[in-house]
């Protein structure tokens, strides 16, 4: 087969779907020696995602208003058998068969949490995208259910493939962790949030819960917010001031991938109280480092953590506070949970993800 993968988004963003694209490409390079792959990057990208596959260049920018038509024109001469769109808006026609990955439908669940531009791009095209695709990959059973109930996609058209965790996420020696934390100007212990600072992540609820925790435990460890600025970031910073959390909440922006394992290793818990997640990769990465996950009881997060850690109602700052209180005060439970987290994380590998994706490529090609 001649297979094309759309990797343009990796030029514009670093986490989320871009991480999925990078890890999937690397896993497929290690796995598949039978098929002919071209990984298409933005013409502006300086780095190459591939070491063995062919690298292609596309001029069409991600999320452009005429993107689907422009990609069709750019790719028409390539003679591809399968074209995979990991950002789930496919060209009008780029290959004999089209595969898309739908990571979540948060933009349908919570349109108020998107910018007007993002809402127009995703909400205006998702129904046509799932109809056009020959097959759909979903990150979780929660997303599969959403595709079926909200967009009427037949179950047979969807394959669930849980994501993997990179080998760099592992327990580190204490001296290596301390060195990593010094480089980030962080203390030895803290509570951690990782993700884009945007309303869907429920940072406001986390801040309220942390205020409640400090009222109960004035010497509680600080809360570290690590990620990139998103929509309404200024409101998040204003909330920190209103709750009198200045100096107790530390935010770190633009942390490199190489620094993330030490960041997870130093945390007492990774807290993800999101209203909605398509998968929740930070929770898995944290578990692979032996860090306790505290996650929302919604969407895909329960699938990722299983019975490890604590699940909370994201609408309740009191419930989030109670979970944080246990993390900080119950050392015996925390240490047992750290061991369980490591065991749980071992079940998630990018090789498994790549095998599922390759099987879908073959199925649509032969179908």
Description:
By secondary structure, the protein is α/β, with parallel strands linked by helices. It has two domains: 2-163 and 349-366, 3-Layer(aba) Sandwich (Rossmann fold), CATH 3.40.50.2000; 174-345, Glycogen Phosphorylase B (Rossmann fold). The chain is 43% helix and 18% strand. The protein has helices spanning 9-12, 17-31, 67-75, 106-109, 116-123, 126-132, 141-151, 174-183, 203-216, 233-242, 260-265, 281-288, 301-305, 317-329, 331-345, 350-366; strands at 2-6, 36-42, 54-58, 80-85, 95-102, 135-138, 158-160, 190-194, 223-227, 249-253, 267-272, 292-296, 310-312. The strands form two sheets. A seven-stranded parallel β-sheet has the order 3-2-1-4-5-6-7, sandwiched between helices. Strand 11 (267-272), helix 12 (281-288) and strand 12 (292-296) form a beta-alpha-beta unit. Helix 2 (17-31) packs across helix 16, helix 9 (203-216) packs across helix 14 and helix 12 crosses helix 15 (331-345). The longest helix is centred in the last third of the chain and has 17 residues, at 350-366. It is globular, with a radius of gyration of 21 Å. The relative contact order is 0.13.
């Amino acid at each position: 087969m001649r297979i094309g993968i759309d990797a343009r988004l990796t030029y514009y963003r670093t986490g989320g779907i871009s991480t999925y694209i990078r890890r999937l490409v690397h896993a497929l390079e290690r796995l598949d020696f039978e098929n002919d792959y071209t990984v298409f990057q933005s013409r502006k990208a300086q780095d190459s995602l591939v070491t063995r596959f062919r690298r292609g260049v596309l001029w069409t920018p991600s999320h452009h208003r005429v993107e689907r038509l422009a990609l069709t024109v750019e790719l028409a001469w390539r003679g591809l058998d399968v074209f995979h769109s990991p950002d789930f808006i496919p060209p009008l026609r780029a290959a004999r068969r089209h595969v898309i990955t739908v990571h979540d439908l948060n933009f349908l669940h919570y349109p108020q949490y998107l910018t007007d531009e993002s809402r127009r791009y995703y909400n205006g095209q998702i129904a046509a995208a799932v109809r056009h695709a020959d097959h759909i990959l979903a990150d979780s059973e929660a997303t599969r259910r959403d595709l079926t109930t909200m967009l009427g996609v037949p179950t047979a058209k969807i394959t669930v493939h849980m994501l993997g965790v990179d080998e760099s996420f592992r327990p580190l020696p204490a001296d290596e962790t301390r060195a990593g934390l010094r480089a980030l100007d962080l203390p030895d212990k803290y509570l951690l949030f990782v993700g884009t600072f945007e309303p869907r992540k429920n940072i406001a609820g986390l801040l309220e819960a942390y205020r409640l925790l400090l009222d109960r435990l004035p010497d509680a460890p600080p809360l570290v917010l690590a990620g990139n600025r998103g929509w309404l970031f200024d409101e998040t910073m204003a909330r920190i001031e209103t709750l009198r959390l200045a100096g107790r909440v530390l935010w770190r922006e633009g942390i490199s991938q190489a620094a993330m394992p030490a960041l997870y290793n130093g945390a007492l818990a990774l807290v993800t109280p999101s209203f909605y997640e398509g998968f929740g990769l930070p929770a898995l990465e944290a578990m692979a480092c032996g860090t306790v996950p505290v996650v929302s009881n919604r969407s895909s997060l329960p699938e990722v953590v299983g019975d490890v850690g604590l699940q909370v109602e994201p609408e309740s700052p009191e419930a989030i506070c109670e979970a944080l209180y246990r993390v900080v005060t119950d050392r015996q439970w925390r240490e047992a949970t750290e061991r369980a987290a490591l065991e749980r994380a071992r079940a998630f590998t990018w090789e498994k993800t790549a095998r599922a994706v390759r099987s879908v490529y073959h199925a649509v090609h032969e179908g």
